[in-house]
Amino acid sequence: MSVLLEANDVVVRAGPKTILEGVSLDIRAGERIAIVGPNGAGKTTILRVLAGHLRPHDGMVRLKGRALADYPAGELALHRAVLSQHVGIAFPFTVREVVAMGAGNARGRAVDALVAQALTEVDLEGLGERIITTLSGGEQQRAHLARVLVQIACGEASHGPGLLLLDEPTASLDLRHQLGLLRVASRRAERGVAVLAILHDLNLAAVFADRVLVMSRGSICAAGAPAQTITEPVIDAVFGVAGGVCALPTQGAPFVLPHGMSLR
Asked: pTM for this structure?
């Protein structure tokens, strides 16, 4: 798989405080990466850097071999799509209208078909004409997922598979829709889209990701397959939690049953 995006020695500061310290990573086409770590570890900050929303103080990010900072906003939107943690809609748009925003100014039958397909994938096919603010928080999150699915599909048509960045996408979803969202993301990866998701649930990260990046205090402290990174020593060192890590008998993926704070 070819490298779609790479970050080298990224540093971000906020006044005297260093938020990210020398973070380097790469994401390959068709790969599913989960970023995990405690609150304040720098997860959302690195995602904002990779999305082009925040310029690092030092280091370089390249998307498809080109400096991320060199992309105009409109062109960048055709190569990567971002599902933010919180998205506010102040006007009475319908769900269908919000999802269609993923296509930018494009309209027509092809866009209508993409919107319909995305609504079906996120289990909102019957709610397209509802005003989005009348939906539950989880339903609104799924509508915004549908919007970024339309965006990534529009970019894929002209520029090939792109990058999908998801910031805590399962936070407001019930268990069924958490799994459904990760299934949708995995389908995009099967088509060559690189998917990076910030996840708090280590068990979801273990069953979803090809690679897990564990962040702590602004740095990546562990990286590798779930079985290499979701381990009792890592959980103890990073989260300060004594966890019982077992393995799923069918897949071999680790799962975590934390049973107490560590004694450190």
From this structure: 0.92
